[in-house]
């Protein structure tokens, strides 16, 4: 995709999605997130062309001006939006899908000093709330949302909402992740034991019948009600 098309895509997002935006000129003049991603689109090309020093130096200049640090090697998809900017960090081996939004102070950081992949991979349509940290070479699935202030150190499934420290999944596809089991659906261990005993008695009776034993005779004799006739009532 051409640089122009990429920048236009990034430019459109705040205009169309941010209620605070007052049009293209407003975004051009007042959105540090737009300035940072526009600069990154150019610097990433310089990085890929293996131009030494300059991309990192210029990325640092952009950081000084916008408060947003994006390593020139970071791979960022189309229509990327950093709302409010300031304090955002995107590490060298981070990979970001299309239509991703980050709020201020988001860190896509590493947890190891190894030279390989050490920053997160974000799928498409991911939203990362303000002050959230997504750390390590983890994968955040398409459509996932990271709550403000969360610290996420494990993979996040698609369409999940993660909040807290450490991040825990509270919603999946908009539904509570831990559905409480209705009482009627809960297992009944005592009932299961009684059921098993009843089945064993039936099986034993069948076996006795098979052997020709008079099963009724082996049971306790039936009580004759007449025996109570002579008993005096208790005083
Ligand atoms: C995570 C988020 C996307 C969830 O939004 P939602 O789908 O409307 O979900 P809910 O508000 O119903 O929250 C679901 C549960 O998570 C909790 N929760 C939501 N956001 C949370 C957060 N940031 N930290 C801790 N818990 C959070 C809610 O209290 C709720 O818990 P409960 O079910 O026990 O009551 C949203 O809360 C959020 O943090 N968005 C980031 C916005 C942002 O950073 N704006 C900055 C603008 S500068």
Unreliable sequence segments:
231-235
Q: If helices are DSSP runs of H or I spanning 4 or more residues, what is the number of helices?
A: 6
Q: List the bound ligands.
A: coenzyme A
Number of domains: 2
Gross geometry: elongated
Structural class by secondary-structure content: alpha/beta
What is the helix/strand order?
HHHHEEEEEEEEEEEEEEEEHH
CATH superfamily of the largest domain: Hexapeptide repeat proteins
Major pleated sheet: 7 strands, mixed
The largest beta-sheet arranges its strands as 3-6-9-12-14-15-16
How far apart the termini lie comes to 104 Å
| Portion in beta strands | 15-25%
Write the layout of secondary structure elements.
Blueprint: H1 3-17, H2 24-30, H3 32-48, H4 54-66, E1 69-70, E2 75-76, E3 81-82, E4 89-90, E5 95-96, E6 101-102, E7 107-109, E8 121-122, E9 127-128, E10 133-135, E11 139-140, E12 145-146, E13 151-152, E14 160-163, E15 168-172, E16 175-176, H5 189-210, H6 215-218
Parallel strand pairs: 1-4, 2-5, 3-6, 4-7, 5-8, 6-9, 7-10, 8-11, 9-12, 10-13, 12-14
Antiparallel strand pairs: 14-15, 15-16
The structure holds coenzyme A.
């Amino acid at each position: 995709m051409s640089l122009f098309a990429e920048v236009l895509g990034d430019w459109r997002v705040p205009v169309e999605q941010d209620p605070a935006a007052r049009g293209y000129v407003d975004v051009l003049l007042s959105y540090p997130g737009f300035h940072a991603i526009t600069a990154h689109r150019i610097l990433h090309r310089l990085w890929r062309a293996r131009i030494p020093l300059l991309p990192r130096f210029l990325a640092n200049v952009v950081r000084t001006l916008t408060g947003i640090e994006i390593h020139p090697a970071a791979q960022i998809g189309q229509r990327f939006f950093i709302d409010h900017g300031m304090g955002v960090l995107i590490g060298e081996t981070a990979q970001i899908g299309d239509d991703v939004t980050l709020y201020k102070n988001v860190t896509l950081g590493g947890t190891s000093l190894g030279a390989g992949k050490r920053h997160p991979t974000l799928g498409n349509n991911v939203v990362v709330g303000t002050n959230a940290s997504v750390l390590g070479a983890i994968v955040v699935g398409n459509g996932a949302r990271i709550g403000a202030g969360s610290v996420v150190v494990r993979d996040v499934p698609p369409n999940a909402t993660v909040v807290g420290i450490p991040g825990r999944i509270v919603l999946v596809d908009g539904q509570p992740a831990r559905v409480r089991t209705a009482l009627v659906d809960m297992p009944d261990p005592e009932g299961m034991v009684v059921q098993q005993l009843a089945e064993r008695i039936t099986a034993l009776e069948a076996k006795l019948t098979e052997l020709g034993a008079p099963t009724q005779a082996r049971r306790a004799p039936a009580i004759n009600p007449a025996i109570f006739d002579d008993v005096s009532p208790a005083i």
